Amino acid sequence: MIVTLSLFGAATLAPLLFRRIGRSSFYVLAFFPAAGLVWLLAQLPAILAADQLAPTESEASPPGFSVPWLPALGVHFAFRLDALAALLGVLVLGVGALVLFYCARYFKNDDPNIGPFGAQLTAFAASMFGLVTADDMIVLFIFWELTTILSYLLIGYARTRIYARRSALQALIVTTFGGLTMLLGLVFLGQLAGTYRLSSVLAAAQSGAPELTGTAADIAVVLILVGAVSKSALVPFHFWLPGAMAAPTPVSAYLHAAAMVKAGVYLIARFAPGFSTTTWWHPTLLTLGVITLLVGGWRALRQRDIKLILAYGTVSQLGFLILIASIGTRDAALAACALMVAHALFKATLFLVVGIIDHQAGTRDIRKLSGLGRSAPKLFWVALLGAASMAGLPPLFGFVAKESVFEALLAHTGLPEEGLFGVSVAAWLIGGVVLGSIATFAYSARFMWGAFASKPGLSPTPFRPVPWTFLAAPAVLTLGTVVLAWVPGVLETLVEPYAQLFGEPAEPIHLALWHGLTPALGLSAVIVAVGVLMFVFRSAVARAQDKLYPVIDAERFYRYAVGGLDNTAVWVTGKTQRGSLQYYLMVILIVGAATPSVAAIFLEQPVPLSALAFESPAQLAIGLCMIAGALLAVRANKRFLAVLMVAVTGYGMAIIFALHGAPDLALTQLLVETIVLVAMVLALRSLPARLWTANPSGNKVLRACIGIGFAAAMVAIAIAAQAGRVAEPISLSLPQLAYEVGNGHNIVNVILVDIRAWDTFGELTVLVAAATGVASLIYVRGRGDGGRSAADVEPGSVDRFSEPIHAPSRKTATLAIARYFAESAKEAWLVAGRTLAPERRSIIFEVVTRLLFHSLLLMSVYLLLTGHNLPGGGFAGGLLAGLAFVIRYLAGGRYELAEATPMSPGTLLGSGLAVAAASVVVPVAFGGELFQSVALEFTLPIFGEHKFVTSTVFDVGVYLIVIGLALDVIRSLGSEIDERAEERNITEAHDHVAGSEEGVAS
Predict the structure, then answer these.
(1) What residue ranges of the chain have pLDDT lower than 70?
(2) How far apart are CA 202 and CA 272, in angstroms?
(3) What is the mean pLDDT of the chain?
(4) Which of 463, 478, 649, 751 could cross-link with 375 by S-S, CB 3.0 to 4.6 Å?
(5) Rounded to whole angstroms, what are the CA distances from 339 to 44, 623, 655, 917?
(6) What is the pLDDT of residue 824?
């Protein structure tokens, strides 16, 4: 957990670091995974000595960490560092540190995107380390999706290139599909096991728990495997990985050789001890593994881009890895881990070599590269060792890993006996692995020949010298490939605790460079011989490939599927999005009325025999007023009258709430209706006065029937729901819950900021996002901030030309009013009100504003602070403060509003969300839980005893957000429209003056 948090912290600070020291910041970032690697190596003795199956809470378990997150659902932030997690952690941190070190010379210092890139790559390392150490299946899925999102951003680094954007989106769609499918499987499996703790689920599965056997468990496992094979680019999902080569080469070296694509392999290895005996495990993974091994190797031989040769080679090797990891025996597990380490070392090396070639030579095309073996000998030897290890040649670790795979396959243990056409499964697998390994040798030779050989007819490719800091990372990885081949026991010691989970075979295999003259060595000799022949006769192989080009192409199918989805979306949008508000309302009302009505009919919902129309004459009177307002709104021929009549229904509802003893709801409804009314009236200034600018559409009877039908359906549903209650209402226990749990008497407010605070926080986030989106539609470069201040505006100039003055008497009166306001403005409280034209100012309104503004603000603060026990709260208080600013705007115009609110709406929205988020996480720092509130009781002199509940801080965030939203509404529908109207009027006035002068001249 410490390593994960430190890496995320480094990612957060990375953009600031790059602004100061440029690309050398990669050296600083490389320190964090390197330090994490040192810490991890220090934990190895405890990891190896621990019982790999022991529960996390026991003393014999591997090092771990766990805190409750969602206790009611059994979800914990749980992490566990066992042998398999340690192995993957070494790869994630070690290769990650080297890749970050390499980036310091790969990127240019003036590249403006390296700051976000460094942050994303570091955050990816953190997410990957969190994934391999997560001991809760829900937490594992979260880190799984974080790697998906970050890989999308990293692949799309060159966002100005359409190929990069398309490849990034392709990878995102494919891996997200697999991830969501995997989530279903994880939830299904967690429900079957009764826990989401991964170690507990695997221990139960290994012990043969009956709930984890049978069809249900098989379905859950298959769903999980979909996520694994999509992430690790197995057929039919393999096409996204070569497309991801649009990313910078360090991304390819890390994500697509050593880290991200290993996530699927890790998942298979993690679940194999408990679920390798399920029905569909072997048929699915062995078949897809062999097919992917062969398809990737075959496609690699067709490539002319050395990076794509490695990309398709990675696809092939991933099929090889999952094939051996899925067998489910001790020997196969040991071989899979060895091959995983070997692949990370040689493939990361070769990708980094490709990056150097591309950086120094400016091309990756084998038809243009020539003579690099002589011009860059050090780079050549590094690449040669990596390619030889990939081809499985001794004395390198790739050979050791491949030999162990052959030994495990030749042992036949853990594999089904019956295969196709009377041939055993082991024989089919050995044949597939031999063919795939031959292709691996051939494309390894093709890579070295294409990148470094001197080709006839081509002059040597210009190549700049390679600095040692650039070559250091691939050289270190190559050194690991050489050293591990001579001391493979080091890796076997680390992997053995994991391999022992499958049981001890009679004759276990061991990692070694020399096993003697064995059948595995004979297979290796055959592979080398045939691979040499394939490379020598590569022209004949290429001609055969041209004739056997696949008819079924997964990438082509993906493009057709996405294109078909786009065409369907366009068709549906054309049929439904007609640009008619009446049509949209008709669809909404019909669906809203028909769906629950049909459901009630099929469910045979009992129909209440009686209903109470009203409880008091006051309710009847208010109801009649609301009906009258609705009818007048329908019949109104002017927009303003229609809006006022609609507001009557809203105010009537507020009174109904008050009559039912719900003052908090009544207050909120009253304030919401008022602020909406103001917004509507402000917006009406940009619309024609009359409701219909042309002949109204027909079908009045149909529209009336739909409206009445919807209303009748809602009434019937409400009555039926009330009559159908069979359990005791939860509302009866809310007063006790509000006081004992939320420490408040105001049930509504306590529910919002305490009992269901998660929902409220989510709604706040959506509200801020929606406000930002709406503001971006109105303002091009901001929320209207940063304009002229009132001091820069000539007194009485704003809106002067909105009404032309013709009569001399009118002009005289206007000048008199201007002189009066000029004198009174010297000590005016409405400092910006003097900017308005005199005919636009109102003495009465300004006096009323002076009386009400501060009182309303104080009242809003009162509602905020007393809302936990009395009617009010942050929402109501924010609305009241917003109305105070509305009054200030109406009295003094947009400059007065700017003077009254020096803080922009965006800042208020962000600050409110930050305050709310802080109140969420601060309790965790003191040992509490998210959203936990505390009641503080204290006594103050004079004021007496007081009780403060910390959830009020969350309410303060709500208060700021609502004020920011109200200011956004006023500025967008008020100030912005004012400014545009003023510019239009000034232009018209100037045109009028110019026309008059031209007439006089003529």
Answers:
(1) 57, 414, 417-422, 549-552, 603-609, 611, 691-699, 778-835, 837, 839, 979-1002
(2) 9
(3) 85
(4) 463
(5) 21, 77, 74, 45
(6) 46
Q: pTM for the whole thing?
A: 0.73
How many Å apart are CA 286 and CA 266, to the nearest integer? 16
Burial of 384 (0-12, 13-18, 19+ CB in 10 A): middle
Contacts of 138 (CB under 8 A, 6+ apart): 75, 186, 190, 196
Nearest to 179 by CA among 215, 219, 229: 229
pLDDT digits (tens, 9 = 90+) for 757-795: 888 888 888 888 888 777 777 665 555 555 555 555 656
The tally of CA atoms less than 13 A away on the side-chain side of residue 830 is 33
Predicted pLDDT at 804: 44
Q: Is 555 exposed, middle or buried (0-12, 13-18, 19+ CB in 10 A)?
A: middle
Q: CA 369 to CA 463: how far, in whole Å?
A: 10
Nearest to 392 by CA among 315, 444, 319, 458: 444
How far is the C-alpha of 200 from the C-alpha of 56, rounded, in Å? 9
Helices 468-486 and 397-410, interaxial angle, to 10°?
A: 40
Q: What is the pLDDT of residue 423?
A: 75
What lies within 8 Å, CB to CB, of 645 at 6+ separation is: 629, 630, 632, 633, 636
Q: What confidence tens digit (pLDDT) does each residue in 484-498 have? A: 999 999 999 999 999
Could you tell me which residues come within 8 angstroms of residue 761 by beta carbon, excluding any fewer than 6 positions away? Answer: 916, 917, 920, 931, 954
Q: Which pLDDT score is estimated for 796? A: 61
DSSP letter string, 205-241 = HHTT-GGGSSHHHHHHHHHHHHHHHHHTT-TTSTTHH
* Amino acid letter, 203: A
Helix (H) or strand (E) holding 947: strand 944-949
Please tell me the predicted confidence (pLDDT) of residue 821. Answer: 47
Nearest Cα residue to 99 out of 255, 294, 262: 255
Give the DSSP letter of residue 937: E
pLDDT computed for residue 945 by the predictor: 79
Q: How many Å is the Cα radius of gyration of the chain?
A: 36
Q: Concatenated DSSP letters for 839-900? A: GG--HHHHHHHHHHHHHHHHHHHHHHHHTTTSS--HHHHHHHHHHHHHHHHHHHHHHHHHHH
* DSSP classification of residue 246: G
899-953 pLDDT per residue, tens: 788 788 888 998 999 999 888 888 877 777 788 888 888 787 877 777 788 888 9
Distances (CA, A) of 655 to 330, 877, 882: 75, 19, 22
